[in-house]
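My hope is that you will study the protein record below before we discuss the fold together.
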Amino acid sequence: MKRLYVLRHAQAGSYTPTDHERGLTDFGVRQALSIASKISGVDFGYAIVSDAERTQRTFSALEVNVDVLISDEAYNASALQLEALVRNTPAHVENVLLIAHNPGVSDMARVAGVTQSLGTCDLVVVEFDSEWDNFAMELSRVVELVHPDRE
């Protein structure tokens, strides 16, 4: 059984020359650390992370030691574009972490049956019975919806 962990980046700051350069707020760092504690037992085999500063910092805070694809294609990607990135996961991998942006991550979650938009650092875990090159959210089952601590 394959599992995909779809994570929206933690809360981002503002006031940078470009959207791409926005880092995390102090609250965003706490959100990422909260999620890190909740996924600490997962054996990730691969990660796909947008090349935006806020997704990079979210990933760093998780302290996941895994092969990672830093992708400019994941920056503001649609759900279909994110699915295409997931389909390129190496076949031997069981658990994949995807860190990207709204609306793409929320749209992916909706296809799998989540009825709400993902807040910052919300995580949707889905599983499916196929190989990565056949991955589609509509063939997935939501296993868990995880929220960071809100304080």
Summary: Helices lie at 26-38, 53-62, 79-86, 104-112.
